[in-house]
Amino acid sequence: PLADQIARVISSMRELDLKKAPSVSETLDWARTLITLGIENITDDVVVQSMPVLLKYQADVERALKEFSGD
Fold first, then answer.
1. Whole-angstrom Cα distance, residue 27 to residue 47?
2. What is the per-residue pLDDT for 70?
């Protein structure tokens, strides 16, 4: 279930107009981070808090935060 949730979030992020969308490397880093933290369900809050693991540029983080935080 976690892998499916990760794939859906990454797919959503790749649809955003970002300078650099999350690559396979960032996706794997994020998955490892979630597992290490014991996350079993990805909520919007989890995505928001872990965004810097996925995105390299601050402008991309800010754009994605708007999308996932509902602002």
1. 12
2. 61
